[in-house]
## 1
Amino acid sequence: MLIASSGAVSSIAVLGLSALVVGLAFLIGFLTPIVGPVLAVGYLIESVQLVLAGDGAKHADASTFIYLALISLAVALLGPGAFSADARLFGRLEIIIPERRRPLD
């Protein structure tokens, strides 16, 4: 684990700081297609750690982390939204669906 290593304090600080930066970027919608999968992988790692801990009460917490991973992936695939940093930086995209042409009879 992180606590057993010699540089435990520094590794925990780096891990916590990176989690904070990724969470804030995801919250404001900055680089959502990149940050969403990173956040989902972090949630999945946490859920695997809880399941491997062997405590039966932790399985409910693990399912919560799995749900959070799925939500992170969904937001990454759907996009950050109109009121996000990505929309301000790259502009709002308008999807134009052309009318369907009827075949000539």
Note: Residues 36 and 74 are 8 Å apart (CA to CA).
## 2
Amino acid sequence: MASKPREEVLSGVVISETTVFTLYELSCACTVHVERIRALVDEGILEPQGRSPQDWRFPGASVARARTALRLEDELEINAAGVALALELLDELRDLRQRLRRHERDA
């Protein structure tokens, strides 16, 4: 008798470009303690608006960036400085790919 494939139910939240998170909300969205998000800010990986942690506001894109950074730290055991460098290189790669697509489209 063949076993049935296991079904998984996924749920999610759509985050628009206008969505803004507080420090606490971002930490909840990333399922980490606030201190982990603060460390990403200290390293320059995330750049909130606002002067103090109580006033910080993060754009919706920060969720994906923070999750990527946390995954690099946790799964690959990269330190914060290494994560910052890796994200900078990933950003450059994304930008170059976009430029190449635009160039190919316009050619």
Note: Helices lie at 23-29, 34-42, 61-76, 80-106.
